Amino acid sequence: MGRRTVSVVVVLVCLGCSIAAFAQSTDSFAQSTDFFVQPTTPTPTTALRARVFQVRPFVARVDGEPVVDEDWLNAQIAEANRVFEPAGIQFRLGDVVPIGEQHARLERRRDRHALGQFMGTGVIHWFVVGFLRDVDDPTVTRRGVHWRPKGYSKKGEPRKHFVVVAKYARPHVLAHELGHFFGNRTHPEIEGNIMSYLPSDAPRSFNLAQLQRIRFFAQRFANTGELAVGNME
Ligand SMILES: [Zn+2]
Q: How would DSSP label each residue in 135-195?
């Protein structure tokens, strides 16, 4: 075993440590932030090839017309790709699947749960609707949501989840909801952060802690087979 081989072994061992710490801390988000901020030097995880996940759009129709057009979908995907690029993740838009007018207005929890009937495997399910109401405060209109539908997850399999974006949402909202999909639960009060509710005229981005969480969840989705993975051409 030459010197080069030894150093490779050491790197792999250290990588194993950091992944183990990751797995532990994501189960407890309250204490995870500091850990994620610490590493500033590139680790072997940042050198992984970019992964491509398919996002399949399910677009509600009203009076026979889709609530958004292809340009709208492409603008959301383009912004998601810009924001996720530092995480080594890209999204490819799948073929549009039309869904009925009864799914165009999501007023209550059960309206969101009902979208679970359209879910398959291997892709990120993205529902685009005409209207989305907050389910806790009916006076509030939402632009998007990350949701876990009741009654569609099988025992022993990862719990199903999807994202919803309303037609009046600005182009960064899909990226925000995908940020939740990839493990970022909170809305930090950081101006310009894609997960923040604060207004921003500047392009939005993830911070280092969020990017590392995204990489961890991308790996998990790939490992469990929840998402099929392609590579950058
Ligand atoms: Zn959010």
A: SS-TTPBPSEEEE--TT-PPTTSPPP-EEEEETT--TTHHHHHHHHHTT-------TTBTT
Query: Do 43 and 109 have their domain in common?
Result: no
Q: Where residue 56 sits, what CATH number does that domain have?
A: 3.40.390.10
What pLDDT was estimated at residue 153?
83
pLDDT digits (tens, 9 = 90+) for 112-143: 999 999 999 999 999 999 999 999 999 999 99
Pairing type for strands 65-66 and 131-132 reads unpaired
In this structure, the answer to whether residues 212 and 153 fall within a common structural domain is: yes
Ligand 1 centroid from CA 80, angstroms? 14
Q: Quote the number of domains for the chain.
A: 2
Domain limits at 127?
A: 50-231
Question: 5 alpha carbon to ligand 1 midpoint, in Å?
Answer: 45
Residues 176 and 204 in one domain: yes
CA 145 / ligand 1 centre spacing (Å): 7
